[in-house]
Design brief:
InterPro entries: NAD(P)-bd_dom_sf, Sc_DH/Rdtase_CS, SDR_fam. The protein has 306 residues and is α/β, with parallel strands linked by helices. It contains ten helices and nine strands. It has one domain: 3-Layer(aba) Sandwich (Rossmann fold). 38% of the residues lie in helices and 13% in strands.
Length: 306
């Protein structure tokens, strides 16, 4: 069993989830047990296979929202391994430790420069400033990964407050509109936008009414934006993860629910960020040059109508 902050060495260790300390939004990686896998892919039950990079993103500039931890952190690490020259990561104040750990991890393993920006993406003035800073530093944006997200349980629709509803939509979908709006003028033909949606957009989730609704909106946003930008040569796709072991989960669900987290999917275990991030590499690279408006489904075997 891994202790808090310790990286698991096997897929069995990675998927055995003990009782967790209570976290508030946004969750943080360094308080989780076990720590989510970032850039190793599970291979069998007793070892981890190193990710094999192939220079798919050489000299690219990427902006990743919520890139400090979870799926965003793993995406940032794989982009760096694939040769991205610059990666900008947005995060919130409580996530500062995770953000600096991600920056240190990437700069130790690659030549990629990491630029940290502490901003809430849910407000247009912040999106304008984020894009302005990235463009000032590197002159362009080649890849935009709209990944920042939040979710809150509500046991009934009567108890879903107006404040929570607005907050969830502001982070999860308004932020994507704002960043795309202001990033697109700095993106050239061959650039890519990748949005993080969720399996809940397709299956629903009784106690995540507002979150699931935003994820459905992201699917429609992805499809519509792809058509809007196709003539400019900018591809827009999405990834719809299933139950993935990330700080968002620990900050959302009560501790007693976490020990069985992910066991209802056909693979009967939660996924790791390292198992989702390669989907983003694929969609960011020319390997997916004939794909736009599509959604990939790393979800442990749940079949959905996409």
């Amino acid at each position: 069993m891994c202790s808090k902050g310790e990286t698991p060495q096997t897929i069995n260790e990675a998927t055995k989830i003990p009782k967790q300390p209570t976290q508030t939004q946004p969750g943080v990686s360094h308080e989780m047990q076990p720590t989510p896998l970032v850039h190793h892919l599970p291979s069998g039950d007793d070892h981890l296979e190193e990710y094999r990079a192939a220079g798919k993103l050489e000299n690219k500039i990427a902006l990743i929202t919520g890139g400090d931890s979870g799926i965003g952190r793993s995406v940032a690490c794989l982009f760096a391994l694939e040769g991205a020259s610059g990666i900008a990561i947005t995060y919130l104040p409580r996530e500062e430790k995770d953000a600096f750990e991600t920056k240190e991890r990437i700069e130790k393993q690659s030549k990629t420069e990491v630029f940290l920006i502490c901003k809430d993406v849910g407000y247009e003035e912040n999106a304008i400033e984020i894009v302005k800073q990235v463009v000032h530093k590197w002159g362009r944006i080649d890849i935009l990964v709209n990944n920042a997200s939040e979710q809150h349980l509500a046991d009934s629709i009567e108890n879903l407050s107006a404040d929570q509803l607005e907050r969830t939509f502001r982070t999860n979908i308004f932020g994507m509109f704002y960043l795309a709006k202001h990033a697109v003028p700095h993106m050239k033909k061959g650039s890519a936008i990748i949005n993080t949606t969720s399996v809940t957009a397709y299956k629903g989730f009784a106690n995540l009414l507002d979150y699931s609704s935003t994820k459905g909106a992201i699917v429609s946003f992805t499809r519509s934006l792809s058509q809007h930008l196709v003539e400019r040569g900018i591809r827009v796709n999405a990834v719809a993860p299933g139950p993935i072991w990330t700080p968002l989960i620990v900050a959302s669900f009560p501790s007693e629910k976490l020990e069985t987290f992910g066991q209802k999917v056909p693979m009967k275990r939660p996924g790791q960020p390292s198992e989702v991030a390669p989907s983003y590499v694929f969609l960011a690279s020319c390997d997916s040059s004939y794909m736009t408006g599509q959604v990939l489904h790393p979800n442990g075997g749940t079949v959905v109508n996409s």
